[in-house]
Amino acid sequence: MGIKIIKNERLWLEDAIQQLEKFSRFKGVVDIVGLPDLHPSKVPVGTTIKTEHIIYPFFIGNDIGCGMSLYNTNIKVKKLNLDKIVKKLTDTQICGKYSIGGGNHFAEIQIIDKVFDKSLNIDKNYAHLLIHSGSRNLGEEIYRNYASINGLEEGSQEFNDYMKEHDKAINFAKENREQVADIFMSMIGLKYSNALIVDCIHNYIEKREDGYYHHKGSISAFQNYAVIAGSRGTYSYLVRCIPQKETLYSISHGAGRKWARYLCKGRLENKYKKDELKTTQLGGKVITNDKALLYEEASEAYKNIEDVIEILVDYNCIEVVARLKPVVTYKC
Predict the structure, then answer these.
(1) Which residues face 268 on adjacent strands?
(2) Would you state the torsion angle of the CA atoms of residues 257, 260, 261, 266, taken in this order, to the nearest 10 degrees?
(3) Measuring CA to CA, which residue among 96, 94, 274, 122 is closest to residue 186?
(4) CB neighbours (10 Å) of residue 291?
(5) Element (H, E) at 211
(6) Phi, psi of 216 (to 5 degrees)
(7) Which tops the pLDDT comparison, 295 or 147?
(8) What is the dihedral of CA 27, 30, 34, 39, to 10 degrees?
(9) Residue 309 burial (C-beta neighbours within 10 Å; 0-12, 13-18, 19+)
(10) Is 283 left (phi over 0), alpha (psi -120 to 50) or beta?
(11) Any idea of the CA torsion for 50, 52, 55, 56, to the nearest 10 degrees?
């Protein structure tokens, strides 16, 4: 297959192709897919790279195990008072062993906007919670020890050591999301009972019989169900995954960036005041102690999530289960 880019004529596609061409020449690299959310980074995000007999920690980077967890809070939507919630969360922070992280990580209260498939018993009457976070300092420490672009040969001691640490980071990242979900809900002060609906990871190495699949901002379609996140001012989607060889059995993890972070403030500061960015296009509220994120994580900085979903449906690699509407986005 070589390099395959999954896109349509409308999708804004950042120039990450040259990077992928470079990586395609690395020893043991067999196939690469760029998904609809593809955008440049040290390793382009929205990519799956398949190798044989060798792995590359460099392809995964520092946030090993990063992913999303969706919970039913068992709080009736009609009991949500957004003004009170925002007041309770303002000037707070989740820190210590468990934390959300920076950049595009978040805790988000979601309302089920539409249900298309009742297989997961999604109930629109209840508020849901979406957590996007990873392995934090543990992943960073592991990456520092294996940051070389050189690969690790299958069966070598260094290979075995890395995969052991890699698996620890995945487990901690899931634990971190669970703990952040409880901490966040406790801060709101409403009686809740978080019930996990789906946990999906999008930054890790997946071992399969035919090789190693390096997921850099991509979700394995063998995870059955997943959340594909939009931006704070657009919808997110709960989907059922359909494995397709053409996409290296992968789907997108989100909308994908359209603008680099350093461009956002210059393009938006004359259009919006900071306080205006605290209310989204869908009427949701944004809470952050990092004012730069108001610009860097604005909806305009991201691709159109509807295009991403449409492409994945056209390629028959997802079926949409539900559409989620963010009402409170917390980045602290």
Answers:
(1) none
(2) -120
(3) 94
(4) 11
(5) strand 211-216
(6) -110, 90
(7) 295
(8) 0
(9) buried
(10) left
(11) -50
CB atoms within 10 A of CB 331: 22
- Cβ-contact 324, 122 below 8 angstroms: no
39, 105, 215, 253: which one is catalytic? 253
Q: Would you say 70 and 238 are in contact if contact means Cβ atoms under 8 Å apart? A: yes
Beta strands 225-228 and 67-76: pairing type?
unpaired
pLDDT one-digit tens code per residue, 166-186: 999 999 999 999 999 999 999
Residue 301 to residue 136: CA distance in whole angstroms: 24
In this prediction the pTM is 0.96
Q: Is 105 tagged catalytic? A: no
Amino acid identity for residue 101 in this structure: G
What the block records as the tokens of 128 is 């849901």
302, β-bridge pairs: 257
Contact of 23 with 54, CB cutoff 8 Å: no
13 pLDDT higher than 70? no
C-alpha–C-alpha distance, residues 220 and 327, integer Å: 28
The full length of the chain comes to 332
> Hey, is 135 helix, strand or coil?
coil
Q: Which residues are bridge partners to 259 per DSSP?
A: none
Tell me what percent of the chain is helix, strand and coil, each rounded to the nearest 5. 30, 35, 35
